[in-house]
């Protein structure tokens, strides 16, 4: 069996393969961008949910201890621990630890 193709047919086949490859790459990039956008949106919603749940848990424990008095040390611990956690989180969020600016020269240092 002999296959005889003209140069026009070979170029047309290569063009079709190139077009399919370009469409495939474009689709993959678009899907990756959509997945990243969805992941970012879910991360914000997930973070908000965790913050609300933790805040509700802290409030519930504090309410229980305040409404059933009897141990002043327990009261101070229950009221102080959330403040310490919040102070730690805010301090880490607002502290600049490094200055990463653009490098000059393009070489490794």
What layout of secondary structure does this protein have?
Layout: H1 7-67, H2 72-94
For this entry, give a set of tags.
0% strand; elongated; mainly alpha; 109 residues
From the N-terminal CA to the C-terminal CA, the straight-line distance is 62 Å
In round numbers, the mean pLDDT is 79
Number of DSSP strands?
Answer: 0
Helicity range of the residues?
over 70%
Computed Rg = 30 Å
Q: What is the ordering of alpha helices and beta strands?
A: HH
Low confidence ranges: none
Please state the structural category.
Answer: mainly alpha
| Oligomeric category | single chain
Counting DSSP H or I runs of 4 or more residues, the number of helices is: 2
Please summarize the sheet with the most strands: none
Shape call = elongated
Strand content: under 5%
Task: Provide a concise account of the structure shown.
The chain has 109 residues and is mainly alpha-helical. It has two helices and no strands.
């Amino acid at each position: 069996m002999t296959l005889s193709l003209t140069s026009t047919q070979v170029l047309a086949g290569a063009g079709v393969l190139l077009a399919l490859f370009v469409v495939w790459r474009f689709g993959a990039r678009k899907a990756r961008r959509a997945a990243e956008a969805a992941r970012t949106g879910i991360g914000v919603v997930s973070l908000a949910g965790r913050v609300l749940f933790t805040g509700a848990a802290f409030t519930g424990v504090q309410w229980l201890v305040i409404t059933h008095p009897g141990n002043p040390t327990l009261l101070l611990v229950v009221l102080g621990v959330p403040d310490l956690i919040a102070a730690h989180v805010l301090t880490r969020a607002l502290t600049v630890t490094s200055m990463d600016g653009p490098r000059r020269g393009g070489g490794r240092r």
